[in-house]
Amino acid sequence: MTQVIDGKLIAEDVLTEVKKATSELASETGVIPGLAVVIVGDDPASHVYVNSKSKMAKECGFKSVQHTLPVETTQEELAALVASLNDDPSIHGVLVQLPLPKHLKSEPIIQSILPEKDVDGLHAVNAGKLAIGDLETGLVSCTPAGAMVFVRRMHGEDLSGLNAVVIGRSNLFGKPMAQLLLNANATVTIAHSRTKDLPAICRTADILVAAVGRPQMVKGDWVKPGATVIDVGTSRIPAPEKGEGKTRLVGDVDYVEAAKVAGAITPVPGGVGPMTIAMLMANTLKSACRAAG
Ligand code: GUN
């Protein structure tokens, strides 16, 4: 029987821990974790994500601040906001929602966030700490950190002897995911749009992680029988069965096909998504604990 990995349930476990540790931190040190989320422009999907991040921060007992900036915001204005959040001792985590509007350069903004407040794990210092295996003092990007919680639940802490294939090589997901798997002793292949014979490479995977943004690209016969399949994609496709003009959310994996072959699989929605937010809360708490000494 294929196990469906319930991301909502596992995220609840993480959030329960975060809430408990937050109230202990507050009573022992008086420090309340502070998360600032910045969004520029009016992309509706980004607003949904950002609102749920801010709301969850409140539910965890954090100070939660949301800065919603108009689409015409300049590079200098955004940089000035990040600088002021860097200087604010009540803020322990700064997240600038991506993608930014086209006229803004995201990389200088991300690199201007203090590494110890970079709860997205995108600063070069945090990416570098992950690359050298320093998971203790660095902050790891939330979606791969969440996916790794699923992998550990299925396979334990030590992935020695297991083949992992990550499809996608982004800084936000593919690269850190591969590093985390490698740190846990998996044999890791990073595949991407230029990879030759992707289905054959995927079939070698005991752990298959898809993050390409191509709806339902990974077919059932790409999956090794019994493999753990983690689907990081979220795309909207037409759903005429729900009514004219309606859409539904799907991942990068053809779920119906893959679920017949996999040992365990994450659904979309309800898999990786809820874990990303939970790990953001965990990262913000970690920053606050470090600031508290
Ligand atoms: N856009 C989509 N996912 C993310 C994320 O994890 N962090 C940020 N900052 N932007 C995103």
TrEMBL record:
Pathway assignment: One-carbon metabolism; tetrahydrofolate interconversion
Catalytic activity of the protein: (6R)-5,10-methylene-5,6,7,8-tetrahydrofolate + NADP(+) = (6R)-5,10-methenyltetrahydrofolate + NADPH; (6R)-5,10-methenyltetrahydrofolate + H2O = (6R)-10-formyltetrahydrofolate + H(+)
Residues annotated as domain Tetrahydrofolate dehydrogenase/cyclohydrolase NAD(P)-binding: 141-290
EC numbers, comma separated: 1.5.1.5, 3.5.4.9
Signal peptide: none
CDD domains in alphabetical order: NAD_bind_m-THF_DH_Cyclohyd
Domain of life: Bacteria
GO molecular function annotation: methenyltetrahydrofolate cyclohydrolase activity; methylenetetrahydrofolate dehydrogenase (NADP+) activity
Keywords: Amino-acid biosynthesis, Histidine biosynthesis, Hydrolase, Methionine biosynthesis, Multifunctional enzyme, NADP, One-carbon metabolism, Oxidoreductase, Purine biosynthesis
Positions of the Tetrahydrofolate dehydrogenase/cyclohydrolase catalytic domain: 5-120
Biological role: Catalyzes the oxidation of 5,10-methylenetetrahydrofolate to 5,10-methenyltetrahydrofolate and then the hydrolysis of 5,10-methenyltetrahydrofolate to 10-formyltetrahydrofolate.
Oligomer and partners: Homodimer.
Family statement drawn from the similarity comment of this UniProt entry: Belongs to the tetrahydrofolate dehydrogenase/cyclohydrolase family.
Name this protein carries in UniProt: Bifunctional protein FolD
Organism in which the protein naturally occurs: Phyllobacterium phragmitis
